[in-house]
Amino acid sequence: MSLLEVKQLKVWDSSTEQVLVANSSFQLAKGHCLAIVGESGSGKSLTCKAIMRLNQAKVQQSGSIVLDGVDLSLLNKRAMRGYRGKRICMIMQNGMRAFNPSRPVGAYLGEVLARHYDWSKEEKLTRIGAAMTSVGLKDPASVMRSYPYELSGGMLQRVMIALSIVMEPDVIIADEPTTALDAVTQFEVMEQLAKLRNRLDCAMIFVSHDLHAVKRIANDVLVMKDGEIIERGTAADFFTRARHPYTRQLITAKQSLSRQFNQLMGGASVAQG
Amino acid sequence: MSLYILKRIGMTVPLLIVISFLTFVLNHLSPMEPVKVILHAQGVPTITEELIAETKAKLGMDSPLLIQYMDWLIASLHFDFGHSYVTGIPVWSMLGPALLHTLKLVLVSSICIFGLSIVLGVICAIREGRWLDLSVRSLSFLLTAMPAYWLAALLAWYFAVKLDWLPTSGMSDGASYVLPVAVLVIGYAGLYFRIIRSSMLSHLNEDYVLYERACGIPESIVTLHVLRNAMQVAITVFSLAIPTLLGSTVVVENIFAWPGLGTMTINAILSRDFPIIQAYVLVLAVAFVLFNTLADVIHAAMNPRMRREH
Amino acid sequence: MLLKRIWNDRLAALSLTIVGAMLLIGICAPLIAPHPPNEVNMELRYAGASWQYWLGNDHLGRCVLSRLIYGIRPSVLWVLAALIASVFVGTAVGIAAGYWRGRVDAVLMRLCDIMLSFPGYVMTLAVVGMLGPGLTNILIAFVCLKWAWFARVIRTVILPIAEADYVKFAKVLGASQLWIIVRHVLPIALPEVAVIASSAFGSMILQISGLSFLGLGIQAPHAEWGMMMNEARTVMFTRPELMLAPGIVIMVVVSSVNFLSDSLQKALDPKLMVIRSTNGMKHRYQRKEAALQQ
């Protein structure tokens, strides 16, 4: 029984009539994680935004997006807004740019929560505080007071994860959540994402071109190229029995890279992170 | 923050000194000796060397340049800009009321300009590429290319003469503001509208807007947040608009016979009344520097990073 | 390459044609104008359009069309000349600052700062006020005011490049540094100079005709667009059509110039479009950002 079912999703630019994502269909079961892999411009992000109906005005879409029996593409704006943030949470690529630069983080979180729950101020604070502690933010109160520029990219990434813990969504869409981070922080954020999935038992769409991360977290993998899904299958299959030449190329590139790295590091096991 | 303001104000002092010196020296760049102008203006029939020397001594024009400058500067600080060469009236008694009249005109126009450009800028940024955006933009493009005096003449002809709705000139009641303000608004709103629009657009494409939407924040509130950030640039530009407008009302005042700075200055230029021109340049340059400082302070106050660190 | 890109945009091509045609007509005015511009013909005062006088006659019976054509010279050609002169002055100062650096650079750039902190219109009035009304004095005022823009741009482009490897390489080969700057560095600054110059051009045309309209510019009987409107002004309410022709011509020329400037900018650097339209603000804003990051 799938939780999210995307059928015949087509995304195109209405000003140039250029098709950006061609007829993609995929399903996502509860508790599963689907990774979408591909180079930049392959339509990964557009697909994610299309699920939340957040593409720019000139970018149009057709097809059905069914979440838990409700077709999101038929909802009116107001109802769709109720889904955003509450049922589907997004975790953005670059934490440093994902928050309004002129507002403290806490004010923003409070506003989002007020949109979806009628909790008292104290309740909001306790819940958010607990979530922040659980993702390793040691001093929630000071984080809430801070402006985005005062926090690091990794911390802001965790703030987004903490927000999705509080929101308890059905689906989390993480759009290249680790790309903008350094290696150590990447590892920690991946840890948190994996924990988040186990904890909420929600479904996750994980967009990345980091095959390490994909291997770690995904059950299923989609490979996109030029707006089309060229390969799909379970994560295990993906790394061993890829059919499409492009996928094989991706995997070999990654393998040769890590082999080279291992050689450079004297064959030590450092590269396993 | 207050330290920053103090520092910023401190920075203007040397600039003000340089500007006042330049203004003072301008007088001496003139191909015509000021003394001769005065004597001409006073209707002296034959100008002899002795007469020139005598007048110079009387007006303190024979002392070294730097001394003259210091005297002039100290007097200017007391709003004493000397006497008009032509009428002999103290400059400030002419400049003061004129400045007030121009300020009234500028304030009314700038409120209209800012209001209009914010409203249009926001709407056009939200509806980017639609017909409304395109038509407002092409219209503003045409209107900025229109000579202000031409537009003024056309409006005056149509509304004041043909329809006889509004007065053609002078500054009597509220109705006499309509045409001059309209001309200034049409001439300048286009520029500021474009700034707001492009500033809004650059913010609308930021990740944080996407994230706010993805969190289910309604579009109207997202727009407000974006506007607030877009205003940071706009505030700077707006605060500079006021002195710019002060200097640009010349044409409008001339056409509508507005008794302001512009009318006064044009007359002064035509009759080579140097003290008035000097005072005009000094007042506007100082206004420019002050508003510039104000712009920086407001900009800092709106920017959390600046607010925290100073 | 650049010209080709501009040509591909139909409106920009039209603007280019208009501006080009204006310049050409202005240069060849005596050949094209049907009548001498200052020929007074009192019998034809305020005459309407006729086959002989396409746009009618003014208050002295002079041919409006011929006056319009001759008006291109002060209104457009001389403004262009002043613009080119200020580009030259600015380039010279910019090179001097980038070449000698150190104290020369500091002094010149502070001077630029001061020039740029003055409101343009007021300064023009100040210079005209001191030197007296007249076209030449306005043009002098323009040159005095605009050079600072170009000096700043040229210097900003020169400084980093003067340090670049290929310049050092050329130095090793024995070329003098000044020659290197002129030969290799200047062409890089050209696009940005072109953008600033073209956007200044439109406002300068408007300003000069405005000053002539106020009686501070060219003196009678010479034909100039602002001057023509000044003359038509006395009969503004009885014969508004006399104001029409010069006004429309100015609008067409200025919007073509502005449009050309926009498309030039788009063709060169689309990203800059955001900050365009506010030359002054752009400069200020960047400085502020730089100060923030320190």
UniProtKB/TrEMBL annotation, chain A:
Membrane topology annotation: Peripheral membrane protein
InterPro entries registered for this protein in UniProt: AAA+_ATPase, ABC_Ni/Peptide_Import, ABC_transporter-like_ATP-bd, ABC_transporter-like_CS, P-loop_NTPase
Any one Gene Ontology molecular-function term assigned to this protein's record: ATP binding
Residues in ABC transporter domain copies: 6-251
KW ATP-binding (keyword) present: yes
Record-level GO cellular component terms: plasma membrane
Cell membrane is among the record's keywords: yes
Domain of life: Bacteria
Predominant location category: membrane
Subcellular localization(s) per the UniProt record: Cell membrane
UniProtKB keywords: ATP-binding, Cell membrane, Membrane, Nucleotide-binding, Transport
Pfam family, one: ABC_tran
The family this protein is said to belong to: Belongs to the ABC transporter superfamily.
Database matches in NCBIfam families: opine_ATP_CntD (NF047578), opine_ATP_CntF (NF047576)
Protein name: Nickel transport system ATP-binding protein
TrEMBL record, chain B:
Family named by the database record: Belongs to the binding-protein-dependent transport system permease family.
Protein's UniProt name: Nickel transport system permease protein
Topological category with respect to the lipid bilayer: Multi-pass membrane protein
Organism: Paenibacillus cellulosilyticus
Transmembrane segments: 12-30, 105-126, 138-160, 175-193, 233-257, 277-298
Segments forming domain ABC transmembrane type-1: 99-295
Signal peptide residues on this chain, from the entry's feature table: none
Top-level taxon in the UniProt lineage: Bacteria
Primary localisation category: membrane
Record's subcellular location: Cell membrane
PROSITE patterns for the chain: ABC_TM1 (PS50928)
One GO CC term, this protein: plasma membrane
Keyword annotations from UniProtKB, A to Z: Cell membrane, Membrane, Transmembrane, Transmembrane helix, Transport
TrEMBL record, chain C:
Signal sequence extent: none
GO cellular component, one term: plasma membrane
UniProt keyword terms in alphabetical order: Cell membrane, Membrane, Transmembrane, Transmembrane helix, Transport
TM helices/strands, residue ranges: 12-33, 76-100, 121-149, 193-222, 242-261
Domain of life assignment: Bacteria
Membrane topology according to the record: Multi-pass membrane protein
UniProt key word Cytoplasm: no
Compartments where located: Cell membrane
Main localization category: membrane
Pfam families: BPD_transp_1 (PF00528), OppC_N (PF12911)
Domain ABC transmembrane type-1 intervals: 72-261
GO biological process: transmembrane transport
Family: Belongs to the binding-protein-dependent transport system permease family.
Name this protein carries in UniProt: Nickel transport system permease protein
Organism the protein comes from: Paenibacillus cellulosilyticus
